[in-house]
Amino acid sequence: MEYMLFICTDSTAPTTEPTVHTIEEWVAETTDGGTRRHGDRLRPANAATTVKLRGGCLSVTAGPFAETTEWIAGYDVIECGDLDEAIEIASRHPMAQLGQIEIRPMWPIE
């Protein structure tokens, strides 16, 4: 099953360096191991544009959809046997120590 990892900042996290891997090492390890499908960094939340269509009226606003101190900094798509494996892989990502990682199973359109 494929899982989306939302790599998020966390304003309450310590500002120390991760003790496990660098992001480059984690990417290389999971890519070489065949688990990571793709991923990338995202520009900061202030570079976001939010689009809504309500009652036929288009609304386009600068910035993220919610005011928050945390934001999605990047993403990775991984292929795992189950959620336990996805948790184990996410726990090795440096942002698990410096931020937080949300794991969501992919839900393909069929």
From TrEMBL:
Domain YCII-related: 4-109
Membrane-spanning parts: none
SUPFAM superfamilies on file: Dimeric alpha+beta barrel
Superkingdom of source: Bacteria
Family of the protein in this entry: Belongs to the YciI family.
Protein name: YCII-related domain-containing protein
Annotated source species: Cryobacterium roopkundense
